[in-house]
Amino acid sequence: MTAIPKTAPFEDEEIELLNRVVGPATPLQRAWLAGFLAGVEATEGHSSALAPAAPPAAAEPLTILFASESGNSERLASDLAKIARKNGLKPSIVDMADLDVATLGSTKRLVVIAATWGEGDPPARAVRAYGELMGDAAPRLDGVEFAVLALGDTAYADFCGVGKTIDARLEALGAKRVVDRVDCDLDFETPAADWIGRAVKALAPPEAGRGTVIAVDFGKPGAAARSEIVEAEIVEHVDLNSSRSDKETIHLALSFDGAAPAYEPGDALDLYPENDPAEVDALLAAAGLSGDAALRAELIASRDIATLSLKSLETYAEQTGHQYVKKLIADGEARAWIEGRQLIDLIATFPVVLTADHLRAVTRALAPRAYSIASSRREFDDEAHLLISAVRYTSHGRDRKGVASTYVAERLKKGGRLRVKLRPNKHFRLPAADKDIIMVGPGTGVAPFRAFVQERRATQAKGRNWLFFGDRQFTHDFLYQLEWQEALKDGGLTHLDLAFSRDQPEKIYVQDRIWQRRRDLVAWLDGGAFFYVCGDAKAMGKDVRAALVRAYAEVKSLAADAAEQAVVALEREHRYLTDTY
Ligand SMILES: Cc1cc2nc3c(=O)[nH]c(=O)nc-3n(C[C@H](O)[C@H](O)[C@H](O)COP(=O)(O)OP(=O)(O)OC[C@H]3O[C@@H](n4cnc5c(N)ncnc54)[C@H](O)[C@@H]3O)c2cc1C
Ligand SMILES: Cc1cc2nc3c(=O)[nH]c(=O)nc-3n(C[C@H](O)[C@H](O)[C@H](O)COP(=O)(O)O)c2cc1C
Asked: Measured in angstroms, how far is the CA atom of residue 69 from the centroid of ligand 2?
C-alpha cells in the first residue's frame, strides 16, 4: 500500500497514525474504509460524488458458487456476498459440494470462485458437481451472465486449471461472460478484491453500483471472525520418529500466553516460515549479490526463493533479456525444464548480471504453510500441537529442503517463537457426540485425529472411535504410539488398525486394512458412522475412496455403479469428509 503523503491535509503525527492503520489493512478493509468515509460525507451533506449506491427497492438474485478445499474461495465468496448485498443484489452462496447442476440454467447471474487442487483437480468436495458440469447432461446456460475467479498457485503446472475449465465450459454452454476471469496466485487478496469490485459492478442492477466506491459492510457477525497472526512460544519440540528412521516428524507444542486462537478439532494453523540463511546465501552467491545485507534479510524473511514457475521464468527472460531462457520459453520447453528445479537452478544454469530488483521481480511473497492442529483445547487449554514432517529430497543432483518443515525441524527449538494464524476448517468437524467415527490418517494425516480423540474423551462422547493409521515401520515410525495404545485401553479408541508399509516384503497401506475390515466398516457406516480421511491427496485419498467403493460392492453385493453411488450418498450427507493435501 502506498503511504499517505506528507502533503495530505493532516498533522505529521496524524499522518503517521493513519499510515499505521491503513498501511497493513487488507484490500477489503481499505474498501470498507473508503465506503464508510463516503457514507459519512453523504449523510453530512458535504459531497455527493463519493456516496455509496443506495440499494434498490427489490434486489436482484446473484448465485455465488464456490469450489474450495482449504477455505480461501469460500471466504472470498462470503466477502463478495457482502459487497453484492450492498449493491442491489440478493446473493445466495452455494458450495459446489451441494450444487444441483440442473438448477444453473435458471440462474440469471452467476459468479464462480474456484480453487485448483491435486495436480489440476477440483477440490475433493467439488468433484461430483464438477464432473456433472463437464458432462453431457449439463444444462444450457443461455441468458446467464457469469464471471469466474480462479484461485491457484503458479508453482503447479496446471495453474488455476479448474477455474479456467469452468470459465470455458460456462461460455460453451451459452452463458455470457461479463467480467474476464482473473487467475490468482497464493497472494490472491489484492487481485481478488479488485476482481470482486469489478464483478459486482458489472452484475449489479443499473441503478446500483454507480458510485465511485463499492460499499462494503463488515458489520455483520462472522465477518470479523478472520483471525490474526499471533506469536507463540515453542514449549515442546520432539522428533517422533526413532533415530534409525529415514523420516523426521516433529511434534511441536505451541503456547500462547493465555491467548490461544479459538480453534476447534479439524482446524489448522498457518505457519509463517523463514528461509534457510544458507540457502539464501547460495542464491545470492549465484546471483553475484552476496554483499547486499538488506536484500539478504528481505529474502530470508519474506520472499519465496525456491519456487520456479513459468511466470518466474518469463519474468527472468523479460528482465534480463537472457536469450537461452527466451528460447526455452519460445520452444515450449520451459514447463518440462522447470520440473524438479528451483530458482537457484535457473540462476546457476543461465547466469547473468542481476540486481536486487531482478531478484525481487522473479520471487513472490513467501506464503505460510498449513498444519492440522493435533490437540484439543479441552485438554490443552492454552496450547496447540502440530505434527510436521520434514520434507527433504534430491532432484537434478541437488539436495532440496521444504521451506517451512525444515525451518521447524532444523532451526526452531524449544523456547523459540513462531508466528501462526488460525485456518478454520468447518467442513472437517466432529459429529454429534453419540455418532461413531472412522478416521483414516496415515503419516501426518493422523494429526487432526489426535485432536478428535482428545475432544471426544474430554466431552465423554458416547460414539465409538476407530482409527486407521499407517507409516513405514512399526518400530521407527509409529507416531504417538503410546497415546494410541493408551486410548485403546481407556476406551478412547474402539479399534486401531495399523498398516506399516515396509515391515514385510509386500507393501501394506491403510486402504488394504480398510479392505480387510470391510464388513465391520460397512456395518458402522450403515449405523450412521462418519468417515474421515486426512493426509496425502496424491495417492492415499483416492485409493482409500476406491477401497471403500469396493468394500460396499463386495459386502452388499452391489454393482460397481451402485457401490459408487453408496459413497456419493455418504459425501452428500457430509458423512465422508476429507482433509487431504
Ligand atoms: C490443510 C492442510 C493441512 C496440512 N497439514 C499438515 C500436517 O499436519 N503435517 C504436515 O507435515 N504437513 C501438512 N500439510 C502440508 C504442509 O502445509 C506443507 O505443504 C508441507 O509441510 C511442505 O511444506 P514445506 O514448506 O516444508 O515445503 P515446500 O518448500 O513447500 O516444498 C514442497 C514442494 O517440494 C516439492 N517436493 C517435495 N517432495 C518432493 C520430491 N520427493 N520430489 C520432487 N519434489 C518434491 C513439491 O513441489 C512440493 O510441493 C498440510 C497442508 C494443508 C493444505
Ligand atoms: C496439495 C495442493 C495441491 C494444489 N494443486 C494446485 C494445482 O494443481 N494448480 C493450482 O493452480 N493450484 C494448486 N494449489 C493451490 C490452491 O489452489 C491454492 O492454495 C488456493 O488458494 C486454495 O483455495 P481454497 O482454500 O479455496 O481451496 C494446490 C494447493 C495444495 C495445498
From this structure: 8
